[in-house]
Amino acid sequence: MTQRLDRFTNSAFYRGRPAWVEALWTLASILAVASRLPGSGPRIAILRAFGARIGKGVVIKPGVRVKFPWRLVVGDHSWIGEDAWIDNLATVEIGAHVCVSQGAYLCTGSHDWSRNSFDLITAPIALEQGCWLGAMTRVAPGVTVGSCAVLTIGSTAVSDLPPGMICSGTPAVPTRPRPKATTAD
Amino acid sequence: MTQRLDRFTNSAFYRGRPAWVEALWTLASILAVASRLPGSGPRIAILRAFGARIGKGVVIKPGVRVKFPWRLVVGDHSWIGEDAWIDNLATVEIGAHVCVSQGAYLCTGSHDWSRNSFDLITAPIALEQGCWLGAMTRVAPGVTVGSCAVLTIGSTAVSDLPPGMICSGTPAVPTRPRPKATTAD
Amino acid sequence: MTQRLDRFTNSAFYRGRPAWVEALWTLASILAVASRLPGSGPRIAILRAFGARIGKGVVIKPGVRVKFPWRLVVGDHSWIGEDAWIDNLATVEIGAHVCVSQGAYLCTGSHDWSRNSFDLITAPIALEQGCWLGAMTRVAPGVTVGSCAVLTIGSTAVSDLPPGMICSGTPAVPTRPRPKATTAD
Asked: Which CATH number fits domain A17-177: 2.160.10.10, 1.10.600.10, 2.30.30.30, 3.40.1740.10?
């Protein structure tokens, strides 16, 4: 059979931190970062304490879920919206001035179809400078969202999105160039 | 660059209530309206106390999230399903006999592409009498869902949906007329 | 009018258990099964206590929501991912070696378009052996997902998915055959 989950093992997967650190993070996530309480500053401080590299001027809203803070990089002046879920078994690298809207889901884990043991495959996600993930969007493992690209509300990126393009659909395809801002710089 | 989030300001955005009222509402939402506890009546009473206009015979299920109750209008005999998320920075006006199914998300906030300061743009949503948003659907800012229209499970409305049509997809397009009810009236 | 929610009644719907059992289950769900606490074993024990038939080697992750445990069947070595939502007003039957990924939503309830009283219609869902529902997928009432079929991330199945096919989109269509595992058996 194609899929024999009893043969699955993720013993080769390196979680990056000892179990007690992960347990502590799970607790901090439940009580603070992923909670409904307001406040971006404390969220950032806690994520950094667990190894996240987060730039200046970043905003992190309530309900944000991060799997492994030690595999999260966020550039200056980026926003992570309410209830965004960063499921980063592999590194998620978010550039500067990126907007991750509410309810977005970033998936870095998949499974190997070529083996019936359904081996875990992880692949990083990169959100390049100035891109915008709309509300309730989904991004598949290994995807790079190009600089200033836009993924519209409810869409799903399963392959790289070209820079500066507006992309829509499940799976998302580029539909038109993003209009340039008419303001200076 | 197209998107300079450090230049963003939403100082021009009028939240409609003083900060202490909003804080109180956040608390009421966490403890009651958006909680998992059963009971429609108390939810409606609390929403009304914060300025929502809600008709008679309305049902509001557990886990429902409302951003600003003072920008919510719900007509008679309408239903708001479990975990629906009404993110109403602008007014959401729901007509009579409307069914908003579980997990639906109504988005009223976007950003101005023409300015690199990424200014907040809000636009109201109207759900006309007798329409039906299926489970896990999404509705974009400014959209009107026509009377008796249906948005099918998992679909995303980014433009107006014509009355009486079944609409599917991300983005949703009308696919066929909704069959008329064969019962009287 | 097409939809008169004031005429709705679900008095004909049989919930399968007395109200006090359902209330007890709601409590157990909030406090344990659907909570963020880790631990698959206790979740399975509780679900079984409320009538679920669950095979051996099954894994159930945090945040999983089940409407009626007494209408849930899960085969050996299957996985139910984080925050999956099994909204089983009708029976959901999950075969062996099935992977239901995080955030998947299984919907068994709809409404009768031919009557303006919007009568509740329920229809079972079957996930056949070795199939895989990707993250944030949706499955509509009455759908059978064929053996070893795959529904890709963010997609919505509104009709049966053929065995062994990879299916994508909202609504999902088969796009190509799933590659056979090259490992033995």
From this structure: 2.160.10.10
The distance in angstroms from the start CA to the end CA of chain A is 57
The tokens describing A83, both together, are 């209830």
**Cα distance between residue A157 and residue A137, in whole Å:** 8
Using CA atoms, how far apart are residues A87 and A105, in angstroms rounded to an integer? 7
Residue to mutate among A155, A156, A168, with most C CBs inside 10 A, is A156
Which residue from A minimizes the CA distance to C135? A107
Q: Tokens for B53, please give them.
A: 């206009």
Which of B2, B107, B156 lies closest to A130 in CB terms?
B2
pLDDT digits (tens, 9 = 90+) for B109-157: 999 888 889 999 999 999 999 999 999 999 999 999 999 999 999 999 9
Q: Give A9's pLDDT tier (boundaries 50, 70, 90).
A: confident
Residue of C nearest to B166 (CA): C113
- Predicted-complex ipTM score: 0.95
The domain made up of C18-177 has a fold known as UDP N-Acetylglucosamine Acyltransferase; domain 1 (2.160.10)
Q: Kindly report whether the global pTM for this prediction surpasses the value 0.90.
A: yes
Name the A residues in 65-84 with CB < 8 Å from any C CB. none
Residue A64 structure tokens: 């944000």
Confidence of residue B65 (pLDDT cuts 50, 70, 90): very high
Buried b (16+ CB within 10 A) or exposed e, C19-51: eebbeebbebbeebbbbeeeeeeebbebbeebe
Q: Does C40 touch chain A (CB under 8 A)?
A: no
Give chains near B: 3+ CB pairs under 8 A: A, C
